Amino acid sequence: MDVLCYLCSKGCQIRAVDSEHLIGADCKKGEAFAIEEITAPKRVLTTTVKTIFKDIPVVSVKTDGAIPKSDLLKAMDYINKILVTDYKSAGDVIIKDLLGTGVNVVTTTNMWRSKK
């Protein structure tokens, strides 16, 4: 399996012979990244959540840490059931401890009331 490391500007192309033998990693961080990507990949999830407001029908959100890649669809199913009922600021927690991962879902923007 090949992994492209994005932890620094080098962008090492790392080939995994197995979970213990890697070719192409220039540093320990790259090795650790490749091993995690092969054995237990994780991703930060970015999406939107519905609101009750006509002027702001959705608010952008993301996980404040990476969650297991295998949980992404379950996480989206859960997030799609959420409805924001009050105005939020960037960084406000919408969902605490998503799916028991210890990772929260937070807003990525301020919701401002429209002035009409």
Keywords:
five-stranded mixed beta sheet; 28% strand; single chain; 2 domains; 17% helix; alpha+beta
Mean pLDDT: 92
Which secondary-structure class do the elements indicate?
alpha+beta
Question: Could you give the order of strands across the largest sheet?
Answer: 8-5-6-10-9
CATH C-level label of the largest domain: Alpha Beta
CATH H-level superfamily title of the largest domain: CPE0013-like
Helix content: 10-25%
Q: How many structural domains can be distinguished in the coordinates?
A: 2
Estimate the global geometry from the Cα principal axes: elongated
- Please give the oligomerization state of what you see: single chain
Order of helices and strands: EEEHEEEEHEEE
The tally of beta strands, per DSSP, is 10
Number of helices: 2
How much is the radius of gyration in Å? 18 Å
CATH architectural designation of the largest domain? Roll
Strand-helix topology:
Layout: E1 2-4, E2 13-16, E3 22-23, H1 28-39, E4 42-43, E5 46-51, E6 58-63, E7 67-68, H2 72-79, E8 83-84, E9 93-95, E10 105-107
Parallel strand pairs: 5-8
Antiparallel strand pairs: 1-2, 2-3, 4-7, 5-6, 6-10, 9-10
